[in-house]
User: What shape does this take?
Amino acid sequence: MTLPARLRLGRIDVRALAPTLAAAAVFVVLFREPATTLVRDWWHDPEAGHGLLLAPLAVYLAWKVGVRPDARPAHLAGLGLLAAAVLLRYLAGLAAELFTLRLSMLGAAAGLVVFGWGFGQLRRWWLPASLLVLSVPVPAVVLGSVAFPLQLKASQFGASLLAWRHVPVQLAGNVINLPGRSLFVTEACSGLRSLTALIALGLLVGGLWLRSPLSRLVLLASTLPVAILLNGFRVFLTGFLVHYVDPALGDGFMHYTEGWAIFVIAFGILGLMAWGLGAVEHTLGRRSSHA
Assistant: This one.
């Protein structure tokens, strides 16, 4: 009894999948270290904990969207992307630079997608790919350069609200001086921690609810001012409670509870904005169909 020319498992052509499976095996060997260190940071670093949610969500969305029925492999382009990712991984390994090392892993994953299904599939998976990029922790030097301006903005806005409510306040950089008490606006209060989550939420909501690239861009761009304004309001609320109620409310459980409450409000604001943009899209779509 002779075997058929092409072995099949159900409807899957094993011989056709062999190059992709071999490339995937090489991927595991080359990028095992950045993958394991990334998962370790997700688990142990509070600044990177959002990856525990974003990465599985990205995998689920990719599975939910599925593969394009007309997907065509682009072997040469995929091999080119893989070669560039491997070179980047080598250089990043020499420099011991984790962020670039992890980005090279995502680049290699994109190369595998192109190798197996073409660029059209990569465009189809733009939302899961974006969430995976956001799951990679940003280098500390970048975080520091971004966090301090956000701290200043939150401090200025919070101090302005306190002065508006007749609270004696003096602002010195990111330190708000109140009668008998000084509030130091740290990185945790700058909005940087919530900004990554808000960007991910904006991408997710825009990708699932909105159709127009312009609407998605507007929603995504709104995450930065929303984070700054709400964290400035958090600074105001903390100063107001410290001055009029109890100085102890500026620390501990109450302080972190305020942070979570502001975060939930930010989610609600982005949801309302997405609903409004969706309504505008629906109205414009109806007008164009009647024209």
